[in-house]
Structures are given as structure tokens and as C-alpha cells.
């Protein structure tokens, strides 16, 4: 008998914990390793992920779930233990990225649609057997003068809903991720334009989820924050980001959704933490609000590691620090003082 989706989602949304996105595709992890001059081999990717998953304090106290990549969910640690078993031993729920990437959309210049639905039922069943209890699918929505269009928003929302329905059928909690990106080719949009596009994207996604019979109680939303594009000359204050993000989410996300876990999207480590903390400090939110960061949880650790075995402990300390800061943010109690302490 499989666990109830609601119980899995509740375990992923435990107080003061959040999700580690360690599901970089082979192309993306190569880019991350390039920054430290490391060749991306299967063993290097394994060593790096093993380092994270063996960070006992971070994994036990601050991380409730980990999103894995297809290669990683099948990998074994250097001593032969499956990486999934390392995760389970820390109490973290294993998850899996199942989309096959955002591809240029036909007859829609500058827009992308995420692929991966063909054969997804069979892949989900296999991943369930490998231990996955949640999944992730990311849609990419880029802002420019002419995009997004309803055509692309609707196609992406429809794919997210078909993915989410297949997940729930397989006993897997879907993380539904429509990412309005802040660091795309233009990236000069204002925070208010981001608000409007995020609102439009979320309304479209929840309409499609409803039509597809997806149970909102058994899913998690992974949205962007409402924030100006990276190249916009006017950057909003942290308070404005927090306030506009919460306003937008309250307007679009039904309270039946148990949790919202943000992506970091290119924000600095500290901004991603501060914004989340400010939102939780507001109180009175109808859902749990936490993190599902990739870059903002890992950047410092990758840098400290540098691909060298003698730096593993330093990398684990860096990762644990970021995880603890984000745990405080999930409780709304992060402060700059905490950040400097033991940094
Ligand atoms: P970032 O936090 O680096 O944006 O990654 C999160 C993620 O999983 C994107 O799909």
C-alpha cells in the first residue's frame, strides 16, 4: 500500500526544513563544475553529491527532500551504498526530475515548452521502485517585450497538469514548477511586469490542474519570487520583493495546496534567504512557505570544495551553513547577525 500523497507532502514541508535541488542535468552540472575548473565525470558528479548527502547536520535538521537526476538516483556512494539510501538514512524524501528539458516551441519565437510526457507513466513507475516519492517538472517562462504569449503559457500549464496527474496516479507527489525567469536573454523587466506575468502563469497553471483532476492537497508548487529582471536598472528592496510575492501567491494559489517551495533563480545566496525569511515573518499564510534551492544552497559549497578531496569538510560546512540559514528563513527568524555568526 503506497503512502498517502498528503503525508509525503507534509513530510516534505516539515517546519523549518526545505528541499535541496540537486537535479542539475549533465549539461548544467558541467557548467557548475566549469566554475571550479573540474571536468564533469560520472565519478566527480557522484563524489560531489555524496559530499552533500553525507552532510549529516544539514540533511537531518534542515533538508526534508532532495531532487535527484536520473543518473544520481541510480548511483552508489564510493563504499557501495546507494545514494538514495544515504538520503533515506537522514530522513530526507528522495525526489526525481522527470522532465526532459525546455525546448524551443514551434511557431512561437523566443518561447519554450517543456517536453517529457511520452513514456512518463512507465518512467514514474520505475522511479517509484527506485525510491522516489516526489517528482519535479520545470516550465520556463521568459519575459521580453513580446513574450510570454498565452499560447506558450497554456501549452506549458497543460503539460504541467498532465505530468502532475501521472505523478499522482503513480503515488508520487508532483512539484509543479512554472518558472518566470529573472536572468533570461533580456532580463530588464521591472518587478511589476514580473508580478503580472507570474500572476498570469499561476492562474493558467491552476486552471489546467483543475481540469486535469489533480488533487491540490497532494502537490507542491515551486514558483519564482516576484522580482525585477537581473538587468533592470531599478531593483526593488527586499521588503518589496517579499510583499509583492506574497500578494501574488495569495491571489493565485488555493489554500488547499499544502506547500510552496521557491526556486532561487539566480538571486544571491543571501537575497534568496532574506526574501524567504521576510515572507514567513509576515505570518498568516495559508500554506507552508519554504525553499527548494539549487544554486542558492550549493554555490558556496562547490566553491569551497573545488573538486579536491581535502576540501570535503570545508564544503560540507559551507553547505550546512546555507542550509541552516534557509531553515531559519523558513521559520521567518533569519537575521544578518545569524548570517555572520559561524559563516
Ligand atoms: P535554482 O534554485 O538554482 O533556481 O534551481 C532550482 C531548480 O530546481 C530549478 O529547476
TrEMBL record:
**What biological process terms from GO does the record include?**
glycolytic process
Superkingdom classification of source? Bacteria
InterPro entries per record: Aldolase_I_AS, Aldolase_TIM, FBA_I
Q: Which family does it belong to?
A: Belongs to the class I fructose-bisphosphate aldolase family.
Instruction: State its Enzyme Commission number(s).
Output: 4.1.2.13
Q: Which Gene3D superfamilies match?
A: Aldolase class I
This protein's pathway reads: Carbohydrate degradation; glycolysis; D-glyceraldehyde 3-phosphate and glycerone phosphate from D-glucose: step 4/4
Query: Can you name this protein?
Result: Fructose-bisphosphate aldolase
Keywords, in A-Z order = Glycolysis, Lyase
Q: Reaction(s) catalyzed by this protein? A: beta-D-fructose 1,6-bisphosphate = D-glyceraldehyde 3-phosphate + dihydroxyacetone phosphate
Pfam families xrefs: Glycolytic
Entry-linked SUPFAM superfamilies? Aldolase
Which source organism does the UniProt entry give?
Amorphus orientalis
The entry lists its GO molecular-function terms as: fructose-bisphosphate aldolase activity
Amino acid at each position: 500500500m503506497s503512502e498517502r500523497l498528503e503525508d509525503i507532502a507534509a513530510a516534505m514541508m516539515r517546519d523549518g526544513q526545505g528541499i535541496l535541488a540537486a537535479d542539475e542535468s549533465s549539461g548544467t552540472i558541467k557548467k557548475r563544475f566549469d566554475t571550479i575548473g573540474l571536468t564533469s565525470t560520472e565519478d566527480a558528479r557522484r563524489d560531489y553529491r555524496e559530499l552533500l548527502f553525507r552532510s549529516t547536520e544539514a540533511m537531518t535538521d534542515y533538508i526534508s527532500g532532495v531532487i535527484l537526476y536520473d543518473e544520481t538516483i541510480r548511483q552508489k556512494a564510493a563504499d557501495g551504498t546507494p545514494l538514495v539510501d544515504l538520503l533515506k538514512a537522514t530522513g530526507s524524501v528522495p525526489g526525481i526530475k522527470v522532465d526532459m528539458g525546455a525546448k524551443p516551441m514551434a511557431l512561437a519565437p523566443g518561447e519554450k515548452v517543456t517536453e517529457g510526457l511520452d513514456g512518463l507513466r512507465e518512467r514514474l513507475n520505475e522511479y517509484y521502485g527506485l525510491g522516489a516519492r516526489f517528482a519535479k517538472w520545470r516550465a520556463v517562462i521568459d519575459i521580453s517585450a513580446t513574450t510570454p504569449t498565452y499560447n506558450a503559457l497554456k501549452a506549458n500549464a497543460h503539460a504541467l497538469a498532465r505530468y502532475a496527474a501521472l505523478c499522482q496516479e503513480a503515488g508520487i507527489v508532483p512539484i509543479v514548477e512554472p518558472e518566470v525567469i529573472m536572468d533570461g536573454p533580456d532580463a530588464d523587466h521591472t518587478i511589476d511586469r514580473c508580478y503580472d506575468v507570474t500572476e498570469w502563469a499561476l492562474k493558467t497553471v491552476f486552471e489546467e490542474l483543475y481540469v486535469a483532476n489533480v488533487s491540490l492537497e497532494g502537490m507542491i508548487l515551486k514558483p519564482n519570487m516576484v522580482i525585477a529582471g537581473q538587468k533592470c536598472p531599478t531593483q526593488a528592496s527586499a521588503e518589496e520583493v517579499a510583499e509583492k510575492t506574497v500578494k501574488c501567491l495569495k491571489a493565485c494559489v488555493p489554500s488547499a495546496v499544502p506547500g510552496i517551495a521557491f526556486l532561487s533563480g539566480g538571486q544571491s545566496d543571501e537575497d534568496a534567504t532574506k526574501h524567504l525569511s521576510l515572507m514567513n515573518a509576515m505570518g498568516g499564510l495559508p500554506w507552508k512557505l519554504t525553499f527548494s534551492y539549487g544554486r542558492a544552497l550549493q554555490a558556496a559549497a562547490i566553491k569551497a570544495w573545488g573538486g579536491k578531496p581535502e576540501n570535503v569538510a570545508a564544503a560540507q560546512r559551507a553547505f550546512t551553513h546555507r542550509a541552516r540559514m534557509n531553515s531559519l528563513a523558513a521559520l521567518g527568524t533569519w537575521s544578518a547577525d545569524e548570517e555572520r555568526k559561524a559563516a
